[in-house]
Amino acid sequence: MSATTLTLAARIAEVACVTDAFALADARVLESYFDEYRLAADPQLLHDVADAMAALVPEDAEALAGVELGGVPLVVALSAATGLPAAFLRRVPKRYGSRRQVEGAAVEGRRIVLVDDVVRSGGQLLAMSRMLRVAGAPVADALCVLERPLGGRRLLDDHGVRLHPLLVEADLPTQSRAAS
Q1: Which residues form the Phosphoribosyltransferase domain (predicted)?
Q2: Which of 9, 27, 64, 73 is most exposed by smallest CB count within 10 Å?
Q3: Going from the N-terminus, what domains does the chain have, and what CATH number goes with each?
Q4: At residue 30, what are phi and psi to the nearest 5 degrees?
């Protein structure tokens, strides 16, 4: 890792890695977690993370799609950093108003890169990639700030989605690894 990435990892750990109980959707409980809202609430850190993630965006990307809710501030910042249009993905279609599941930029026919905060099991990104593929948007890549080694990369690989994390858990300073 470069000195810049080490510094960024330390800043992310200081701001967004929290030691406290965190319940996963599958009922497992972690002793610590990555709090994407703390990262998004720090404008300079969000800007610096987006700039670093911009280098991970594949050259053939035509649009970015942020997964609700943690991926939305990231995709807005990354869109500003790259100039690529952004779409916003809901887990389920809105029940009123537009009734859409995808908001923002049009996705049909565009090569979309998924954006989320942290990848653990990969289930959420897999569901969003399937939804986008059904909508006519090829998805082959996903970006995240932090990858935890809980099977997500393997699941995504098995379904044709390459994961590009800015950081993996081992990149965090030793005292913060438990808090991701």
Answers
A1: 42-149
A2: 27
A3: 3-179 (3.40.50.2020)
A4: -95, 155
* Distant-in-sequence, close-in-space partners of 52: CB < 8 Å, separation ≥ 6: 4, 5, 8, 166
Distance CA 167, CA 124 (A): 19
Residues whose CB falls within 8 Å of the CB of residue 127, separated by 6 or more in sequence, listed in order? 91
CA distance 177 to 180: 6
Query: CB count, 10 Å around CB of 176?
Result: 21
State both tokens at 120.
Answer: 């653990």
pTM of the model: 0.90
Within the chain, strands assigned E span 17-23, 29-34, 63-67, 86-89, 102-104, 112-119, 139-147, 162-168
Binding-site annotation: residue ranges for orotate: 148
Tell me the two tokens of residue 35.
């709090």
Q: Are 161 and 114 in contact (CB under 8 A)?
A: yes
Binding-site residue numbers are 90, 94, 116-124, 148
Measured over the CA atoms of residue 48, residue 51, residue 54 and residue 56, the dihedral's sign is: negative
> pLDDT tens-digit profile of 17-74?
988 888 877 788 888 888 999 999 999 999 999 999 999 999 999 999 999 989 999 9
Where is the binding site for 5-phospho-alpha-D-ribose 1-diphosphate, in residues?
90, 94, 116-124
